[in-house]
Each structure stands twice: as C-alpha cells, then as structure tokens.
Amino acid sequence: MPELRIGPLAVPAVVAGVVPALLSVLPGPDLPGSVAVRCAVGGPLALLGGVLVADAVNRVYLRQPTPLGDLPPEHLVTAGGYRIVRNPMTIGMILLLLGETVLYAAPAILGWAATVLAISVVTTRRIEEPSLAEAFGERYRSYATETAGWIPFRPVRRSRRPTEV
Predict the structure, then answer these.
(1) Which one of 59, 95, 106, 115 has the fewest CB atoms closer than 10 angstroms to its CB?
(2) What is the pLDDT of residues 106-128, one digit of tens each?
(3) Domain locations in the chain as residue ranges
C-alpha cells in the first residue's frame, strides 16, 4: 500500500480550512439571509467545491509521485474534473470558498477567494502551463486546445487545420 503523502493535503487544508476559519471571525457587514438560506446556498457550493478539490488532489498528487511546486506530474491527468476543465482544483477551491463565505456569512472570505483565484491564474499561466507543455509536448497542447481552461462547457479555441479539398 502506498504511503499517504501529507504535503498535498496541507495546502488545501490551509487555503480552505485554516484561513477561512480565521477570516470568519473578523468583523464585517452581515450577509443577508437566515441560517437555513445560507446553508441551502452555501452548503452545495462548498460540497461541490470540496469534491472537485479532493478529486483533483487525488488524481494529481496522491495517485502519482507529483512533487509540490513547479514540477509537472509524472502523468498528464485528463480524467475526472480534468475532462471538463484544465483547472478543476482551482475552480473547486473557489466554489468551496464561496460556499464558506455564505455559510459563515463572512465577506472577508470572498476577498480571500479573489486572492486565491488571482494567484492561481498567474501561477497557472506563468509556471504550470509552460511546464506541462514542456513535459508532455503535443499531448498537452492538444488537451489544452480541446479542454476549457477555467469555465466549464465554454467553447474552447480550436486549432485551425487546413481542410482537404
């Protein structure tokens, strides 16, 4: 049985657990809605986000010896949430944080979600995508061309290939 690696679990635990818990106690404007309404809206968002994050962490970090940082995984992951978007871990984290914003009625978590998204977009564009393109070549470029980056089910840019006459 492979050993459980704690490192890949620490980042989501801090980003979606520790930081939001600390931010939830900051004073701020109250969000409208009763506890029942907040649970009905925030609960599904947080649950969906948590499932996406857990699946992505499992596929990228727990099923293979992917290092944390700027090195690519051993295998290009295109299954699970990665069939729909290239960044399901980020999308899941943002959904989870939005759910926590509503559940805790803590607008400060929304600011944290915006920060997490901005950092993720920059690191994805500058580090992750070039690293994956270098490691997996045409296979990654084809995947990137045919799979939406951030918005599920959004039309993706198709490479124009000459049509045969």
Answers:
(1) 115
(2) 999 999 999 999 999 999 999 99
(3) 33-146
